[in-house]
Structure to design on (930 residues):
């Protein structure tokens, strides 16, 4: 049989950890598991279409597949954020992935896009930290703090009294250096260290009240999907799942390694108190309820998540060490 | 030549609109600076408004720029041509190279913008949630105006060439 | 080579022929993208182009371009810039090339404020080229200085290129910024030395002030110069200082700068409706010219890479022979030559993933190597036929400037850039000292 050749694009640089522990792994697994029956041509971000336009490119049939983050379509699909990350520690990464794979999440994610694209979760990052040039010990320290943020967390920061600045990723470091912003969220330890955040910020803190983690997507053009034989369909889907978990574990190794470097560098690390964490969680619930009132599908997904939290929490609390 | 005059007028008018857009662009940026640095309360709309004005400026202004011969080209070879040769050469470039992509981009842009209007999709750049239709419509408008100006240039060149033949 | 890759090569070849043949760069790029896209990708090319265009429209960082250009044109049309350069001309007196020196210094300051080359090059062309031509500066020198000085912004931090390079090569952007500072200043210094020496050896390049014009001396001259220069200088220092000092982002500063230019023009009683209108129209033409090139190059790059042109270049490079310093010179040579034809973004996508592992396995310091790559890519702004700096200068300069003038004008500066690469190879501390001292790298 002829080799099946798919062309697609990453949403992040393929040599950065966001690429190499997500979509690059998926490519590798699909090619290996299919015994060479499928060839995946993976373009780097921006090569074919801008990273922010992957969804449109797959929907429009320009690409057979694309790695994506729903944050780039929040105007079209406000509920997309719920499949990606939630603020205030509502459904942390390990819980969100359980809901996504078995609690009705991935079905809702497909429902959101209808027949426009096929979607599978693909790619999971270790949890984030937050960097600051000023010491942050309590929520009161957020008052007037100029922070770079994006997505659902913007509302949360504003509720906490911070002044949110929208900046493209490339502007973050120079802006911190010059003092245009005091603080930023970026990613986990290895990525942040590589960017050099430790060289301009003296402090970092946790937990990541703005978002827990990032779960990315594999989008597939429906026509290319339908043309696949059934066994390859299974391979494409399962390869995404394996890439998610293997990539997550590999990514953590980087996080661990670079966290040591950050500690050795002498960055002052603080953590918000339990009471403060509970406050941000409460604010996050408020924000999610507000958004639900604006968009019916957002409400539907959020209700599903709330039900999952309610069902999940008793046994989780019983078994979790505090 | 009536058509040519009408098209030139259209380019002049749209050019005037696009040119003066720099003033609101400046004022919106100034307002953002004021709101952020002095009032410590940035607006939700400033960021998107800025890039939409700026996109309108260069897309709508493309036709006027063509009319004023502002799109740059390397003149080493071009300068060796006679006046008549230049006219013929320009006509071929306009007809074969410039016009066809403009038609396709106008067509594609109408579809692209129509999708946004019909689905009622919003911008994803910030949390402002402004409709995406207006900014996407700038693409077909800009390329349509460019294509129109290109047609005017072709007619004008052919007319001048004919006049030259008669003399 | 697959048929698609062959097509990518042919597409690049036709682009060169068309550009040299006098087709508008922006339209040649759009035309070839459509033709090759339709043949090899089918009608998908049109929606793909829409996504690319929309991506450029939404890029907030580029808004600084029209506003800086507007600031420049207001200062130019209101003759404020002319006054500043006239004063500099008189102050420099018998020192030849004084205006060119002032241009390089201004460019260097501008470079430390923004990494957007289009903004620096077009603004400086509007401000500095007409005054230099008016004083009979050689056209090549006048435009070459702006091309070279304006491109410093891609090296002197902040720089878009370094921000892109960091994550691709696993290098800290903060370290790259620190590492790029001295090479950037070294380049500016080389330009200054060249201008001073060159104009001393060949006085016709940049005539010094004639005796009959140099009537005023001493306090009278200084007083007049202060009156002509201080408001505009104050504006430029305020705009650039607010960026460096962290008060404003480049986009914000560009808006304030444009408004400030209006105020300065008003202070000199030179602000009229006609001048503002002319400035607005010039801004429009320069902006549209620049952005149609940017969107054209964007879609052209996409088609080229989609056809596998990038992969082809990779495979050619992989077949190169080995030997540490030889490989380094081959890599630098390839970058230099490809830089004539491909934009720096294209080079960055192709080169970094290929060259970097090779360089590291040969034992070169990745930070140092990264800076060599970036220094080298800076030359691609000046090397024709595909040279952004030349295009932008040509588009914003007075019509009497011919493309060939600029070509001749950039040659010495390209040679100086090559010299800088060589100096950084011979003296790696130029690159590595600052990041080690400040960041403990
Ligand atoms: Na710069
Ligand atoms: Na070049």
């Amino acid at each position: 049989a002829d080799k099946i050749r798919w062309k697609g694009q990453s949403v992040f640089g393929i040599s950065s950890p966001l690429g190499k522990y997500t979509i690059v792994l998926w490519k590798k697994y699909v090619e290996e598991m299919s015994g060479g029956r499928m060839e995946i041509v993976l373009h780097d971000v921006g090569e074919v279409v801008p990273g922010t336009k992957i969804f449109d490119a797959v929907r429009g049939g320009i690409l057979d597949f694309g790695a994506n983050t729903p944050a780039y379509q929040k105007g079209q699909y406000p509920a997309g954020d719920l499949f990606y990350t939630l603020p205030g520690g509502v459904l942390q990464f390990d819980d969100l992935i359980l809901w996504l794979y078995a609690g009705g999440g991935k079905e809702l994610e497909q429902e959101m896009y209808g027949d426009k694209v096929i979607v599978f979760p693909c790619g999971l990052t270790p949890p984030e930290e937050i960097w600051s040039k000023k010491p942050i010990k309590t929520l009161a320290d957020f008052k007037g703090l100029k922070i770079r943020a994006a997505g659902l967390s913007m509302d949360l920061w504003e509720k906490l009294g911070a002044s949110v600045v929208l900046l493209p990723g490339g502007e973050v470091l120079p802006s911190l250096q010059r003092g245009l912003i005091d603080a930023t969220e970026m990613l986990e330890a290895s990525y942040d260290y590589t960017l050099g955040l430790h060289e301009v910020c003296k402090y970092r803190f946790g937990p990541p009240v703005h978002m827990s983690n990032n779960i990315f997507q594999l989008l597939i053009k429906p026509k290319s999907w339908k043309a696949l034989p059934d066994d390859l369909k299974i391979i494409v889907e399962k390869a995404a799942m394996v890439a998610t978990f293997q990539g997550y574990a590999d990514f953590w190794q980087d996080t661990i390694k670079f966290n040591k470097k950050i500690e050795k560098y002498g960055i002052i690390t603080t953590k918000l108190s339990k009471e403060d964490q509970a406050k941000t969680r409460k604010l996050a619930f408020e924000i999610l309820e507000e958004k639900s009132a604006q968009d019916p599908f957002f409400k539907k997904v959020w209700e599903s998540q709330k039900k999952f939290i309610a069902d999940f929490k008793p046994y989780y609390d019983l078994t979790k060490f505090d | 030549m009536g058509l040519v005059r009408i098209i030139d007028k259209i380019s002049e008018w749209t050019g005037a609109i696009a040119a003066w857009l720099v003033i609101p662009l400046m004022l919106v940026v100034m307002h953002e600076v004021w709101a952020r640095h002095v009032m410590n309360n940035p607006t939700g709309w400033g960021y998107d408004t800025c890039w939409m004005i700026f996109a309108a400026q260069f897309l709508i202004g493309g036709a006027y720029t063509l009319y004023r011969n502002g799109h740059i080209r390397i003149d080493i070879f071009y300068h060796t041509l006679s006046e008549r040769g230049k006219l013929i050469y320009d006509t071929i470039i306009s007809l074969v190279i410039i016009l066809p992509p403009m038609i396709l981009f106008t067509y594609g842009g109408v579809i692209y913008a129509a999708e946004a209007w019909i689905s009622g999709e919003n911008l994803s750049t910030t949390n402002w949630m402004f409709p995406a239709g207006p900014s996407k419509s700038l693409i077909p408008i800009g390329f349509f105006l460019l294509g129109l100006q290109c047609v005017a240039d072709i007619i004008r060149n052919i007319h001048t060439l004919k006049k030259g033949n008669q003399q | 080579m697959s048929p698609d890759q062959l097509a990518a090569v042919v597409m690049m070849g036709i682009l060169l022929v068309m550009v040299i043949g006098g087709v508008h760069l922006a339209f040649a790029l759009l035309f070839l993208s459509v033709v090759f896209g339709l043949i090899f990708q089918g009608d998908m090319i049109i929606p793909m182009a829409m996504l690319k265009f929309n991506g450029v429209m939404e890029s907030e960082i580029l808004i600084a371009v029209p506003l800086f250009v507007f600031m420049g044109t207001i200062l130019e049309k209101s003759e404020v810039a002319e006054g500043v350069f006239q004063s500099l001309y008189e102050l420099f007196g018998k020192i030849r090339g004084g205006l060119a020196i002032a241009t390089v210094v201004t460019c260097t300051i501008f470079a430390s404020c923004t990494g957007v080359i289009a903004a620096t090059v077009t603004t400086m062309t509007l401000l500095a080229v007409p005054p230099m031509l008016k004083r009979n500066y050689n056209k090549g020198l006048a435009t070459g200085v702006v091309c070279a000085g304006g491109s410093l912004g891609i090296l002197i931090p902040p720089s878009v290129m370094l921000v892109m390079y960091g994550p691709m090569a696993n290098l800290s952007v903060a370290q790259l910024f620190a590492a790029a500072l001295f090479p950037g200043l070294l380049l500016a210094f080389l330009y200054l030395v060249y201008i001073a020496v060159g104009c001393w050896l060949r006085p016709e390049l940049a005539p010094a002030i004639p005796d009959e014009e140099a009537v005023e001396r001493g306090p009278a001259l200084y007083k007049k110069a202060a009156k002509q220069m201080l408001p505009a200088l104050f504006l430029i220092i305020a705009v650039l200082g607010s960026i460096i000092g962290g008060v404003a982002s480049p986009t914000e500063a560009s808006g304030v700068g444009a408004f400030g230019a209006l105020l300065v023009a008003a202070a000199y009683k030179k602000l009229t409706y006609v001048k503002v209108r002319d400035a607005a129209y010039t801004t429009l033409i320069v902006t549209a010219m620049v952005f149609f090139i940017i969107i054209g190059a964007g879609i052209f790059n996409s088609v080229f890479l989609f056809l596998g042109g990038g992969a082809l270049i990779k495979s050619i490079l992989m077949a190169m022979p080995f030997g540490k310093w030889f490989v380094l010179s081959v890599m630098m040579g390839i970058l230099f030559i490809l830089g004539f034809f491909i934009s720096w973004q294209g080079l960055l996508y192709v080169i970094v993933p290929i060259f970097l592992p090779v360089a590291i396995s040969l034992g070169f310091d990745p930070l140092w190597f990264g800076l060599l790559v970036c220094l080298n890519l800076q030359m691609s702004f000046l090397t024709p036929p595909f040279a952004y700096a030349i295009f932008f200068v040509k588009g914003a300069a007075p019509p009497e400037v011919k493309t060939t003038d600029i070509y001749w004008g950039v040659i010495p500066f390209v040679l100086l850039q090559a010299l800088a690469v060589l100096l950084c190879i011979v003296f790696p501390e130029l690159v590595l000292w600052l990041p080690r001292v400040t960041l403990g790298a």
